[in-house]
Design brief:
22% of the residues lie in helices and 27% in strands. By secondary structure, the protein is α/β, with parallel strands linked by helices. It has a single domain, classed as Purple Acid Phosphatase, chain A, domain 2.
């Protein structure tokens, strides 16, 4: 595969496709249409978990149907609402070097390397990176220390300060950070789960979270014992790599928008 000198990875998250709530699948449909009308079409799409609300085969069939218009590869991981085995059967094998028993794998898409981490714990809202999963990650990072790498997962290794949200935190976050600190090729760690867009420093790299495809939450930070949130327009993340600028991430509000020339290549208009 020839090396591309620019690459765009789009991230969707928390689609929560639910047969009893058609609006969720409709929101995913709008997100897919949004990606297809971007000025630069993504080279790949990642979906960072909670693909379905309950996880029966019918929800995953609808999930796949709504993703079908995307012409580029789509890579998914499970969230706490998912059923790992059902999701795996629906989407088929993902990437290479998969960890047995988990949806944890590598995508070689020169010049970037994508590493998918599976934080799913059956029946639990919180996430886990156990010794087996962390050992696999250490091995994968050690084998390609010069390759710019993006890690995607469902549960973010952060504390938001919103108490009900933080009760579903990621167990093993400290050990994960210790591994990331050893590998400066990790340019970004991205996650979902909290339905908010956040940015935080993490072990020498940048941690970002992506909002859901139906809405973004802006919490009332003055009432941390509750989850009171403004429902704002849904968004996705666009991770753009070039040799000169490395990895730059844009937040793109989901919708239909036209192009307006602000600079014609010579001067500002």
């Amino acid at each position: 595969m020839p090396i591309l000198w620019r690459m765009l990875i789009a991230q969707l998250s928390d689609t929560h496709v639910d047969l009893s709530r058609p609006a969720k699948a409709q929101a995913l449909q709008r997100a897919v249409a949004h990606l297809n009308q971007l000025p630069l079409r993504p080279d790949a799409v990642i979906v960072s978990g909670d693909c379905a609300e309950h996880g029966p085969p019918g929800e995953y069939a609808l999930f796949r149907e709504r993703l079908a218009p995307l012409p580029m590869p789509v890579y998914v991981i499970p969230g706490n609402h998912d059923q790992r085995d059902e999701l795996g059967r629906a989407v088929g094998p993902q990437g290479t070097q998969a960890l047995d028993g988990f949806m944890q794998y590598v995508v070689e898409c020169d010049p970037l390397r994508l590493i998918a981490l599976d934080t799913h714990v059956p029946g639990e809202s919180g996430g886990l990176l156990c010794e087996k999963r962390l050992g696999w990650l250490q091995d994968r990072l050690s084998e390609a220390p010069q390759t710019p790498t993006l890690i995607f997962m469902h549960h973010p290794p952060l504390v938001t300060g919103i108490q009900p949200v933080d009760r579903t935190e990621l167990e093993g976050a400290g050990a994960f950070a210790d591994i990331i600190r050893q590998h400066p090729q990790v340019r970004r760690v991205v996650a979902g789960h909290i339905h908010m867009s956040t940015v935080q420093h993490l072990a020498g790299t940048v941690l970002m979270t992506c909002s859901g495809t139906d809405a973004a939450w802006l919490p009332d930070l003055g009432q941390p014992a509750k989850v009171l949130a403004q429902q704002q327009p849904a968004s996705c993340l666009l991770h753009y790599w070039t040799p000169a600028d490395d990895l730059l991430t844009y937040t793109s509000v989901i919708g239909q928008y036209g192009l307006v020339t602000q600079h014609d290549g010579v001067q500002w208009i």
